[in-house]
Amino acid sequence: MKNLSRNFFLHLSENKLLNRSAKKWGLKLGASKVVAGTTIEAAIPAISQLNHEGLKVTLDHLGEFVTERNEAEEAARACVHTLQTIQSAGVDSQVSVKLTKLGLDIDENLCMENMHHIMQAAAANGNFINIDMEDYSRYDTTLNIVEELRRTYDNVGTVLQSYLYRGLEDLDRFKGVPLRLVKGAYKESPEVAMQDKEAIDANFLRMIQKHLLNGSYTAIATHDHQIIAQIKTFVHENDIPYDRFEFQMLYGFRADMQKQLAEEGYTFRTYVPFGNDWYGYFMRRLAERPQNVAFAVRGLVSK
């Protein structure tokens, strides 16, 4: 039943008709509890509050699967505007981007041009860009683009997913690169991705431990308190300094634990999405945990 529910919401996340309709609804269906606003200006108060509580932020201007050149160029300009707004507002936030929003599916050269504009703006504003990983069909291209950008910029990293069989192997390719490590949120073929939760969790831990022992900066993105506890033990046993890693969780989830980890002295970063293209992101959050469905229903009936 759990896998059926997960597959159902993952299928909905890819429905382009529902995605277009969702932009007209506004932040309905509980999305306002996990999306900080439809504009960067609307999201700034939420970022300021998180900073006040001792939490750093990474901002994601929601949107993916852009098919028009002008949309991709507009997305790049919006990202530059986000970087400038972060700087002028004086908040502590990095920026996460999706390459499909920047034209990857249209023209790889267009996507790279847009990324260079963003990276130059990030460097000018003293900021860091994290390139989110998308589904497996775009995996190798994403990694190639990250490698190309790293030849010019050191303020860029990406995401590796532990449900992929090759996840552990790809860590060697990115030794020394700041990485966000996650379990994975897309529906992937059993040919490329593990389907068993215990196997995914075990690989997640191995990947985290390997990247930490390599001396590479590691963002550990999970809401799993058991894995967090195991990482706490591991860093203490291996004398890994706190400035070599951070914990990350999503905006709107486990807020008490986020603050607790920050109070314990760990670097903590909240992944804060904003924008009116929220539908796909929200459906994947519903797919990840059955509890999120009840969370969404409560958000709807409390309107």
Automatic annotation (TrEMBL):
Enzyme Commission number(s) of this protein: 1.5.5.2
Named in its record, the pathway it takes part in is:
Amino-acid degradation; L-proline degradation into L-glutamate; L-glutamate from L-proline: step 1/2
This protein's cofactor list reads: FAD
InterPro entries, A to Z = FAD-linked_oxidoreductase-like, PRODH_bac_arc, Proline_DH_dom, Proline_oxidase
Give the cofactor note: Binds 1 FAD per subunit.
> Which region is the signal sequence?
none
Annotated positions binding substrate: 98, 284-285
Q: Which residues form the Proline dehydrogenase domain?
A: 45-295
User: Which reaction equation describes what this protein catalyses?
Assistant: L-proline + a quinone = (S)-1-pyrroline-5-carboxylate + a quinol + H(+)
Q: What is this protein called?
A: proline dehydrogenase
